Amino acid sequence: MAKQKQKDLWLRDEVAAALTQEAKGSDWAASGVSIDSRTLEEGDIFIALRGEAHDGHNYIAQAIAKGAGAIIAEKPVKDGERECPVLVVPDSLEALTSLGRYRRQQTRAKIVALTGSVGKTTTKEFLQQLCQNFGSTTYSYGSYNNCWGVPLSLARMSRDDAFGIFEIGTNHPGEIAPLAQLANPHLALITRIGKSHMDFLGSLQSIAEEKGEIFSGLIPEGKAILNRDDAFFDFLKDRARQAKAKEILSYG
Prior knowledge:
Layout: E1 10-11, H1 12-18, E2 29-30, E3 32-34, E4 44-47, H2 60-65, E5 70-73, E6 86-88, H3 92-106, E7 110-115, H4 120-131, E8 137-139, H5 149-155, E9 163-167, H6 176-183, E10 187-190, H7 198-201, H8 204-211, E11 223-227, H9 233-242, E12 247-251
Parallel strand pairs: 3-4, 4-5, 5-6, 7-9, 7-10, 8-9, 10-11, 11-12
Antiparallel strand pairs: 1-2
Helix pairs in contact: 1-3, 3-5
C-alpha cells in the first residue's frame, strides 16, 4: 500500500528553521518535496537544483503552474511567477541537505542505511515491505542514493514515521561518509563488495574501504549487518568495530 502524503509535511516555520532564515509572510504548509517539475505534485516544495545537464531554475514557472506549495531557489523569482512562497538561498543543494538534516534530527524513526556493490535496491525494497507492516515507513525512491537522493529521501519523511530505509551509493572516494552521517542510522548494512565503479575507485580494496565508511554515521550504540560470505567480511567487521558499533550481525 502506498504511503499517503501529509498536507502539513513541512510547515513554514520548520522550513525557515532548517534553512536558518527568518519566517516571513503568512503561514503555509507543504505536502512534499520535489526537485523535478515533471513529477511534482500539487503542494510540493520545489527545489531548483543546478545540474550538469539541466538547471532547475528554468522550470520554476512550470512548477508554480502545477501548484507548487513553495519554491527554494538561488535567485529571486520573477514577479509574474510569484504565486507561492519563495525562499532564496545561496546553494539549493545545501538547502535540500539542510531539510534532510532537520527532518532526521526531528524524527524518532528507526533508521536503516545500506550500501554495497550489488543488491542495494533489492534489499531496500525487501526491508521497506517488512517494516511497513509495523509502522509508517519512508524509503529511498528507486535508486535515490547520491548527494541529492539521500537528503531528498530524508526530507520526505513524516514526523510520525516509525522507520526510514535509505540506500547510499558511491562512484568516487569520499561520497559515502557525509551521506551516512546525514542519515545517522541505527543500523548500517553492507550487501556485498564487487567490481562496480572500478574506474574511479581503482581496486576492490578501495571499494571496501569506501563502503566501510557507512559505519561512520552510526548513532551511538548503533548496529552493523554484514555478508558473512563476502571476501571482505573480516575487514568490514574491523571497520564496524572501529566505529564502535554496539553489535555486529552477519548473514549468509
